[in-house]
Amino acid sequence: MIVWLNGTHGAGKTTTAAQVRQLLPDSRVFDAEKVGETLMDITPGLPATDNFQHWPPWRQLVVETARRVLDYTGGTLVMPMTVLVEEYWREISAGLAHHAIPVRHFVLHADQETLRARIAGDTAIGPDSPFRLRYLAPYAEAARTWLHTAAEVVDTTYLTPAQAARRIAEAVGSEAAGS
Length: 179
Fold this sequence. Notes:
five-stranded parallel sheet, alpha/beta
């Protein structure tokens, strides 16, 4: 199974993913951004883009990598990765479905004020990252038009990552117990 944690920068995906992994037996975190970083390292480079998700190989390799890891290890992959383009999400989820990999898709949501405050106080990448701020409007649009209906929304505005992780693990665990 895959537990996909979607949402924009500052919603808490990376921190929550690490905590979900601790709560779900036989789970691992797979950050699909590493696939994009690998593609960015190709020389000479792939066609210019402002987002590696626009490269079709990224989407295909995310599916293939997840499939191969699950074939090798079994268990659950917890995947913290922002995907705001509906066509890309449909391509990835269809690819996973083709391989009969169940996906629980969660969106970690926070209001814009909270997201801006978290990005302003980010100590890992640095405060007020223009890259992260650039995704707030596309996230709001995706949330309004398709994303919140394509996933289970966990509002992290007033939740700690540990609380969000518990909600996700309980939702996933109740599904596993019912099957």
